[in-house]
Specification:
The structure is a single chain. By secondary structure, the protein is an all-alpha fold. The protein is 75% helix and 0% strand. The protein has one domain. It has helices at 9-26, 29-33, 41-59, 63-87, 92-117, 122-133, 138-156, 160-165. The radius of gyration is 16 Å and the shape is globular.
Length: 173
């Protein structure tokens, strides 16, 4: 009777798999252990933002299906931000303000990363963006830029079918 809902189920499932994969990659211990990102709530937010940006960039390569999936990934990521804030005890009256602020920071960093990858010298542009937004230490920002570029390379060679199914190159799926 309600067959039109079945059409969205694969996208929702793939978006959920991508969300899990993003969180897995964002928790990679190397950037935190080497001091490339602070092991704080803000540092973890930056890592989720960086990985989400890379995933959504790649998904946009796959036309309408990819853009729909990228939108689903975005919704899952922000739903988890909302959930995490509520678990931290943030009241309903301030959730919207905090989510809006997170959205501004998320999209600011995402635009900076997108723009850096569009530059002729992506490594230096990415490093400058990371110095400004994540880690002001040039050497550590450069090392983080290398980590980001390695993750981007892994995503760039993914088959479309895997990407649209939500199978990340770094997950066991």
């Amino acid at each position: 009777m309600f067959g039109w809902f079945k059409k969205d189920k694969p996208v929702r499932e793939a978006a959920s798999r991508w969300h899990s994969a993003i969180m897995e990659k964002a928790r990679d211990t190397m950037p935190f252990q080497q001091g490339l990102v602070e092991d704080t709530l803000e540092g973890r937010f930056h890592m989720v933002t960086l990985v989400s940006t890379l995933v959504m960039r790649r998904l946009r390569d796959f036309d309408n299906d990819g853009r729909a999936l990228a939108d689903g990934v975005y919704k899952n990521v922000f739903s988890s931000f909302d959930h995490a804030l509520r678990e931290e005890g943030v009241g309903d009256s301030s959730i919207a303000r905090k989510i809006r602020k997170m959205g501004e920071e998320f999209f600011g960093l995402a635009r900076a990363i997108d723009g850096a990858f569009d530059e002729d010298d992506a490594t230096n542009a990415l490093t400058r963006s990371l110095v400004k937004n994540v880690n002001s230490d040039d050497m550590k920002a450069r090392a983080l830029a290398d980590w980001v570029q390695a993750a981007e390379r892994a995503l760039s060679v993914m088959a479309e079918a895997d990407a649209l199914a939500g199978i990340a190159p770094w997950s066991d799926a």
